[in-house]
Structure formats: structure tokens, C-alpha cells
Amino acid sequence: MIKYLSLQSITALHDTEISTAVERVIRSGWYLQGQQNRLFEENYAQYIGTKHCITCGNGLDALCLILRAYRELGLLKEGDEVIVPANTYIATILSITENQLTPVLVEPDINTLEIDEQQIEQAITPRTRAVMLVHLYGRCAYTSLISNICQRYNLLLLEDNAQAHGCQYGEKRTGSLGNAAAHSFYPGKNLGALGDAGAVTTDDEQLTQTIQSLANYGSARKYEFTFKGINSRMDEIQAAVLNVKLQYLNEENQRRKMIAKAYHEDINNPQITLTKDNDRDNVHHIFPIFCPSRNRLQQYLKDSGIETMIHYPIPPYQQQAYKEWNERHYPITEFIHQQELSLPCNPTMTDEEVQFIIDQINKYQ
Ligand SMILES: *Cc1c(COP(=O)(O)O)cnc(C)c1O
């Protein structure tokens, strides 16, 4: 059986180094807000290309902390609108509604699967204050047009970079393209911890201080509380693991790119559509293919010993959690959710496995 993703094999790639780093933390007796977090904040800010990085508990917290901090700073207020892609993972939308802001859903472009830059301007109203990009599947959603629109309308440009660690736009990395970006180090992401972990990157000094304080009960100085904050911290153990794994991220993304290239060159079943690949700005967190008989294809591959996933079966606005939106229709988003199938694409796969997957898909009738 070829698993969709084996976290055991992913961790085994750097087993000794990770174990040594974790043991060092265990023996140090210092488990929160210590050296490993400071080091990772430095390393990751440098990697992404921002002045600051603030570690936190997980990716959803990172998203929420950005929006909450802008509320505290007076740049966002209750009822303000945030433009966001309709076809994202629900966490992006949750962070917006959690902060009493209004998500304005915009369809993706079917060719890129990212938010349709042409539809953003039409979605702007007098209450719009921000655009939240999601670099979904590991592809860059940022375009210069989007940046121009944000400047023209004085909107904050925010990034959900949970799926795109290492992705580039020209010389810059996603996570450094707007005012602030949220990152998740959930174990299955391209850069994954051995548990929950997240971070915010930004060049904004004031935002940095506000987020640091909000994530620490609203306190910048011990026993003095400026905000009604939360507790969202990265364990020292997770920071130590990430300090090891960050060193190998580019190499591992490179392996993903090679696998994706093989899929692109060799999958030629007329029932199956691949998206146009702009390899330069894609770190292939997820490799999506499209097929009208998606469920049957998934079963066929399972019977052939290949595990696949669907990202995602139900869009956020069709979830019970957002029942107030259940009557809405976004045809491109629905097409993606009905026909998408994600192939295994990760740095532990062998060439033989990749070839086997290609052969099985090409034989599908
Ligand atoms: C994984 C993910 C998140 C949430 O990250 P967690 O660390 O699991 O909270 C947010 N947005 C997107 C697009 C994601 O894929």
C-alpha cells in the first residue's frame, strides 16, 4: 500500500538529529518561551524574508492573532469585510468570523485554483478592509494586480501560508508579500512539527508586539495585562524539531517538485485533467488532479494499493457550521470539490512508487 503521507517516514528522514534536539530540550528543564523558540523565530524570519516572526500554538491561532491584533490596533473593527477565497480550508474563514469580521467569498480561477484576481475588485465595498490570500495546495496566490488593488483601496494584504512554506514569488517568499502572514506547522504540512505549532511573520514592529502580548494572556510585562489575551505558545520541543527540519525544507520541496514534474509529464489519461503547472512558484503541498468520476477513480486506486485524499469534499459555505450560507452557490468552487483528487506527493516517495501511480492512473478506464 502506498500511503498518501507517512509521517513516520517523514520523521525518519532526520531521526537522529530530531531525537538529539528533543533530548537536549528534555534535559534542559526549560519547556516554554526559551532559546529554541527565539532561535526558530530568527531562523524562520530570515528564511521567509521578514523582520519578525512570532511563534504560537497552531496555524488557526496565527490567523486569529493577526486579525485580533489589527482589531486592538484599531485597523479593523466589528463588521468590517475581509475578502477571502471560497475554496479554502475552513480555518481561514473561522479566523475571520471568530473576530466578528465578515468574510466575503470570492471564487478561484479554475486554471490556478487560487483566488481569481479579476473578481477581487468587484467584491470591494465601503466596508472592505483586508484581502486574505490563501496559497492553497502550495501555489502562490499573490499577483501584482492584487497588490495594486490593495494599495489603491488601502486594504491590508494578509496571507495564509499554511500550505506553502518555501513557495516563491520572484525573489520573495510567500509569507513576506503582504502586511502579515500566518503559518501552520501541523505535522502533515511541508514544514511540520511533531504536534501543533504555528507562527506569524511580518515586518510590522507594532503588530509584532501586539501579537506577542495577545498570545501571552495579553501581557507584555509579567503580571501586567494590556489586552484580554489568550495562551498560544509553541513548545520548546516543537521549536527544536522545527529548527532541525527547516534546514531540509528546500531539499524536500525540491523532491516534491520532481515528483510533480513526473506526474505532469507522464499522466496522459484523457479522463483526467491536471492543472497548469507554474513550477517556479509551487511547493506541491497537495498535488490535485480532476476527474468527472472522481469517487470511482479513488476506489480504483485504493484497490490498486494507492491511497489518495480529497481536498476538500465540502467547501466551508456548505458546512453546517456556516448554515447561514448553505443556499449560496459558487460553481467553480463546487466543481473543484466534486472532481478533485489529491495524489501522494511527498519527499519520502521512491521513483518506483511514483511510476506505479502514473501507470495505474493511465490504465484507468
Ligand atoms: C492547516 C491549515 C490551517 C490551520 O493550521 P492548524 O495548524 O491546523 O491550525 C489554516 N489554513 C490552511 C489553508 C491550512 O491548510
TrEMBL record:
Gene Ontology BP terms: polysaccharide biosynthetic process
Keywords for the protein's UniProt record, in alphabetical order: Aminotransferase, Pyridoxal phosphate, Transferase
Domain of life: Bacteria
GO molecular function ontology, one term from the record: pyridoxal phosphate binding
InterPro entries, sorted: DegT/StrS_aminotransferase, PyrdxlP-dep_Trfase, PyrdxlP-dep_Trfase_major, PyrdxlP-dep_Trfase_small
Residue positions of the active site: 189
Family: Belongs to the DegT/DnrJ/EryC1 family.
Organism of this sequence: Prevotella fusca JCM 17724
This protein's name: Aminotransferase
Modified residues (N6-(pyridoxal phosphate)lysine): 189
Pfam family, one: DegT_DnrJ_EryC1
Annotated Gene3D superfamilies: Aspartate Aminotransferase, domain 1 (3.90.1150.10), Type I PLP-dependent aspartate aminotransferase-like (Major domain) (3.40.640.10)
